[in-house]
Amino acid sequence: MDILLQIWGGSSYLLNKICFSRAERSAAPESNKAWRLRSWAIFLAGLPAWVTVFILEHNWIAAAVEAGGAPAMLMGFIIALRGHGREPRWLDYMARFSVVFGLAASLYDFGGITTLTQIYELCVAAGFLIGTYFSAKDNVNGYFGFMLGNLSCAVLMGSQGYYILMAQQLVSLIFVADAYRARRRAGRG
């Protein structure tokens, strides 16, 4: 089960970053839209595997933030489909609630911030939220959030023996950097 979750979650999130990179390299608006839709759909498909891995390891902050990222992912999909200004506001509120809940659950479970793992989780949470939220809004700064999240998650997964997920996070980092560079070169960021 462990390996299956790593392959499912890891490949989904890696494909998501590859699709983001392809979207940024697309010259035609239709192609950009198609790659963004694929990216957000694949992101959502990998979410259950990641949440399960985080829960199994009692990474409550990361689990709640990851689950709370579903509204931001859905918002990204809706924006890619319909365009800016047509996304439901309740998705924002739901994501924010999940972050607070995840932090509270972690503090309760561990009796405060007492482990290095929780610090990694906070960095994963910050990177994931910034990356997902800004990317959903088609803001180039979201890629910096993803970079922080990818590096922090690679360290967290490696420290817990999830080496497939660690490798996936490091490879994803290459595609995130490529997407950022392509967006800047195109002058759209």
Overview of the molecule:
The chain crosses the membrane at residues 37-55, 61-81, 93-113, 143-165. This is Nicotinamide riboside transporter PnuC. Keywords: Membrane, Transmembrane, Transmembrane helix. There is one protein chain. By secondary structure, the chain is mostly helical. The chain has one domain (2-185). It contains 7 helices and no strands. α1 runs antiparallel to α2 (29-56), α3 (60-82) packs parallel to α5 and α5 (116-136) packs antiparallel against α6. The protein is globular. The N and C termini lie far apart (41 Å). The mean pLDDT is 88.
Q: Name the helix and strand elements from N-terminus to C-terminus, one letter apiece.
A: HHHHHHH
Q: Strand count, sense and closure of the main sheet?
A: none
Compute the CA-based radius of gyration. Answer: 16 Å
Count helical runs.
7
Number of domains: 1
Work out the strand percent. Answer: under 5%
Mean pLDDT: 88
E-strand count: 0
Distance between the termini: 41 Å
Based on the model shown, name its key terms:
189 residues, mainly alpha, globular
How would you concisely characterize the structure shown here?
The protein is mainly alpha-helical and 189 residues long. It has helices at residues 2-25, 29-56, 60-82, 90-110, 116-136, 142-159, 163-185.
